[in-house]
Amino acid sequence: MKRVALGLIILVAVVAALAAFTKINSSSRSAHQSGSYDEQLAACHSIPNGSVQDETETSRIFIDLPRALYPADVTGYFKTVQGDATAGYVSNGGLPGNSLQATSNCSSTYFEFNGTGEVDLTVPSMSGAPAYSIHFIVAQEGTPPSPAPAPSMQGTVRGTVMLGPTCPVEHYPPEPQCADKPYRTTIRVQPADSSIPYTTITSDANGAFSVSLDPGTYTFVPVGGNGMPPTCRPQQVAVAAGSSQSVSLTCDTGIR
């Protein structure tokens, strides 16, 4: 009987230990679920994971992270990726991991940026949570942000010049060897206002051309055979600021 009782006691102890172990693992896994993870970052006022932050040289920030997920001291996890920018620990905020904003659940370390360029912070997880990564872009102190480029005041016209027919008798359906062919030639671009000098462009071996023009109306005139075939048809094009359009110009070989 004593042996049976002892066996029951041991069995109960083993079951209790397994239950406790399962509970601990379950609690650890739940702490790393998406909602719980985000809540822990928010509770520590952490910079959002995966974000890009703009800083200036000599600016200072606190890096605050949940103690349960990441090492308290993150001073060794900054890496310069461009320029000479660095992030260094500043002691007057307190010891690494225990700076002014630290709590029992959140570590905190104070840093100052120096130089200009780009710095990555990548802190590995201690218990299965995602690595904590922030990209810092450090600009010179007092440098105004780069102005947005002004919208283009010109419009673009792209197109092709095609030459045809290329066979004396056209068939239906068309025969591939008799298709119109690209035409390399000079194109005169004449503004509607004849007092403005015209522009000359050239189509390439594929018949393609491109030109940027001030807003207005223009006539595109491919140069043909100077009174002899091929003869090319002019085409009028209206150009608007910031617009892009395609046109197709044609030249007649005179083959019939």
Give a written overview of the molecule.
- The protein is of the alpha+beta class.
- Helix content is 16%, strand content 38%.
- The chain has helices at 2-31, 34-43, and strands at 52-56, 60-66, 78-83, 86-89, 106-114, 117-123, 132-139, 155-164, 181-182, 186-191, 199-202, 208-213, 216-222, 231-232, 235-239, 244-252.
Q: What brief labels describe this structure?
A:
single chain; 256 residues; alpha+beta; Immunoglobulin-like; 2 domains; five-stranded mixed sheet; four-stranded mixed sheet; elongated
- Report low-confidence residues grouped into runs of 5 or more: 20-34
- Assign the CATH class of the largest domain: Mainly Beta
CATH architecture of the largest domain: Sandwich
Mean pLDDT: 85
CATH fold name of the largest domain, please?
Immunoglobulin-like
List the domain count as a whole number: 2
**Class computed from helices, strands and strand pairing:** alpha+beta
Determine Rg (CA atoms, Å).
37 Å
The shape, in one word, is elongated
Order of helical and strand elements: HHEEEEEEEEEEEEEEEE
Measured by DSSP, the beta-strand proportion falls in: 35-45%
Q: Supply the number of helical segments.
A: 2
Helix content: 10-25%
Largest sheet: 5 strands, mixed
Which superfamily, in CATH terms, is the homologous superfamily of the largest domain?
Immunoglobulins
Overall strand count: 16
